[in-house]
TrEMBL record:
CDD domains: DPM1_like_bac. It is a multi-pass membrane protein. Keywords: Glycosyltransferase, Membrane, Transferase, Transmembrane, Transmembrane helix. Residues 7-170 form the Glycosyltransferase 2-like domain. InterPro entries: Glyco_trans_2-like, Glycosyltransferase_2, Nucleotide-diphossugar_trans. It comes from Fusibacter ferrireducens. The lineage of its organism: Bacteria, Bacillati, Bacillota, Clostridia, Eubacteriales. It is found in: Membrane. The chain crosses the membrane at residues 231-252, 264-290. This is Glycosyltransferase family 2 protein. The keyword Transferase applies. Its main location: membrane.
Length: 319
């Protein structure tokens, strides 16, 4: 099979209204680069007509391909399947909702031609997203930066271009809890940025509830660092030291002044506080253990229900 010059991967979960407009804009951009391209829609178990919309386009343009999951496996898994499927020399990943302007692919491709392996699209501004979303997202990237041992680019979504060798490296990862935005940095290679203003969603609603975002944030932090553990052991160490000093103070006080019965408040507050810390500490350890359990259990990352234009064994989950 001939390798296309560029592959575009589109994870899509209930995006029926966005498929056609996205295709139109992509087509316009991609033909400027080369006629040899492929657009791979990864349907993440949509319940609406996303699949039908993709097939309608595929009937007219064979370069449009479909991988459809048996159920919703989440955005990161859709990305994973997309990278395993994409065969192009350069691979772009783009959201289905047109929040990432396809026209930017031209700039990204130019950078790729200039020898960069990873080209991030960095948001300058975001339109019409709630203040809470913007500020939590800003905060998230800062906390992540502080917490993680790998550098993770600030304020970038998933929209990015990867060279063939970068994609091949990404495809070697087998971990379950993955934070793709960090992995592309972890692999190294030459990295650069292009800048854009983030648009509003074209149609439909965001698929990320705050709960899902929380989970993403926790995954991101835990899969990239041991700092939560280290912070808690530091805290445990400090509080034990402080407790020891208090103990000395109280013992000496008792020897000199006898045994006054007051002191209930201090005892109870200290107990509450430190039991709280202890529980948090145990649950952080639990989070890591749960992750180890998931990895050891080694279930497949996702299940493919149907493919069109893609050989099933290419996308099948090998892990
Ligand atoms: N998405 C997906 N599976 C999910 C959730 C989202 O494939 O479980 C896709 C979605 O269709 C979109 C992209 O991931 O193409 C980004 O999602 P969304 O636009 O809802 O996120 P936001 O832009 O609000 O952060
Ligand atoms: Mg979006």
């Amino acid at each position: 099979m001939n390798r296309p010059v560029i592959s575009v991967v589109v994870p899509a979960y209930n995006e029926e209204m966005n498929v056609k407009p996205l295709y139109d804009r992509l087509l316009d951009v991609l033909t400027q680069i080369s006629a040899s391209f492929e657009i791979i829609f990864i349907d993440d178990g949509s319940r609406d007509d996303t699949v039908a919309e993709v097939l309608k386009i595929r009937a007219l343009d064979e370069r449009v391909k479909l991988v459809s999951f048996s159920r919703n496996f989440g955005h990161e898994m859709a990305n994973t399947a997309g990278f395993r499927t994409a065969s192009g020399d350069a691979v772009v990943i783009i959201d289905a909702d047109l929040q990432d302007p396809p026209e930017l692919i031209l700039d990204m491709f130019e950078k790729y031609r200039a020898g960069f392996d990873v080209v991030y699209a960095k948001r300058k501004t975001r339109k019409k997203e709630s203040f809470i979303k913007k500020s939590t997202s800003k905060m998230f990237y800062r906390v992540l930066k502080f917490m993680s041992d790998t550098e993770i680019p600030l304020d970038t979504g998933d929209f990015r271009l990867l060279s063939r060798r970068a994609v091949d490296e990404i495809n070697r990862f087998s971990e379950k809890n993955r934070f793709f935005r960090g992995l592309t940095h972890w692999i190294g290679f030459k990295v650069t940025y292009v800048y854009f203003d983030r648009d509003e969603r074209y149609a439909g609603e965001t698929k990320y509830s705050y709960i899902k975002l929380m989970k993403l944030a926790i995954d991101a932090i835990l899969s990239f660092s041991y700092k939560p553990l280290k912070l808690f052991s530091l805290f445990g160490f400090l509080s034990a030291g402080f407790g020891f000093l208090l103990m000395l103070y109280w013992m000496i006080k008792k020897i000199i002044f006898g045994n006054p019965t007051n002191g209930w408040t201090s005892t109870v507050t200290i107990m509450l506080f430190f039991f709280g810390i202890l529980m948090m500490q145990v649950s952080v350890v639990g989070e890591y253990i749960a992750r180890i359990y998931e990895e050891v259990r080694a279930r497949p990352l996702y299940i493919v229900g149907r493919t069109e234009g893609v050989a099933p064994e290419i996308v099948s989950d090998k892990n």
